[in-house]
Amino acid sequence: MNTRGHNPTVYKHGNNWCFRYRDKDGVRKFAVVCPIDGPGAIKNALDRDTRKREILASLGLVQGEMSPEVKATILFCDAAPSYLEAAQRRNRNPLAPSTINAYKSYIANHLTPTIGDLPLAQINNKAIKELIALLKARDLANKTIIEIVGFVKIVVASIVDDEGNPVYPRKWNHEFMDLPTLGKQNRPTFTGEQIEQIIARAKPREAALYALLAGTGLRIGEALAIRLDGTEDQSHFSPDCRTLYLRSNMWGNKERSRLKTFSSERDVDLCREVAAFLKAYIGQRKSGLLFCADSGKPLFQRNILRDSLHPIEVGREAFQSYRTVGGKKVKHILFPAIPGVTGKQIGFHAFRRFRVTHLRTTAMVPDAYVQFWVGHGKKTITEEYTIIREETTKRKELAESAGLGFKLPKKLISMKGGKAA
After folding, report:
1. 270 secondary structure, DSSP code
2. Where are the domains of the chain?
3. pTM score, two decimals?
4. Alpha-carbon distance 298 to 305, whole Å?
5. DSSP per residue over 79-95, as a string?
6. Is the pLDDT at 353 greater than 50, yes or no?
7. Which helix (H) or strand (E) holds 11?
8. Are the C-beta atoms of residues 82 and 75 closer than 8 Å to each other?
């Protein structure tokens, strides 16, 4: 369904070009523009759009205008999915899969049960205030509430007329809504000593992964997409493993060419120590993913957390869980806890924070290089003028002098296929 005034999208349906619209009473209807092929077909997209406008005009629906009846009948439960569908198709800044999934979760778990049947015309400061009260009653984190409210505001603003003007203009009042503030967020990190213990306790594949994350500051999705035989559109290493060319990202078990931001496509330089560690881990392998399951398939982030990182972190002498193997549940004994690494479980981003902290405070690397290596966007004109990508020699020198900030095990590891040699 298209909710952007009376400017619906023409799409293929069966053997015809069609569009959906709302009549003057707000009832959703369906109209055929022309056949896709054969007699009466209109091959030019502009001519099809002209025909669509003629049909709307014959129905008394003027482009760019929306009757009060239509405005009053567009529900949030209809507008939100329409916005997500359009946001995935647009050429300018399409939403990332992770963002789409988060918004779908908000719709299903929090918004459909509360304001799903509410017309957009009635979603105002008072309605948002009541929604926030309900979300707080569910003990949601402040950041989650802010993101949910932000999504609601985006959906309301997404309904525009043919001239791009908002159909439901709003002046949001955060004080009246009682919108929570973020305050000081919990951004846990590791120390160099903790990283050494984590790598020492982990199995070979995960040890190599943690060494790479802590030694480069990669995002976990970026690390899992690295290939030994990657093309120009895929993430891969230079032959000496000293430079990593980031061009793709792993979401779930699907490799995507689109990274988180434009700045995420970058070249990351490694010091000799971690490069040698990774080369020993790779062994004789020449193809496939750098980090993969025994079958060669991509790894899932949640499985690494469940089976390796979190059991190492939790403050217990032993950690037991059950997994299904061959249709049967079997007990799985995981790693014992590391002294000093206790409390709340920490995720992969803690390695990234460690690397940034080490580069900026211990190694005193200029911020421009740190920003380039971790894939953060440029915020000032001065940063835009600073070109780091071409300074390969300087980058390698800084990466080598900066070092790791932690020690790698002396015994190197190698892999054959997805298994330790």
Report:
1. -
2. 11-70, 98-177, 192-420
3. 0.68
4. 15
5. HHHHHHHHHHH-SSSPP
6. yes
7. strand 11-13
8. no
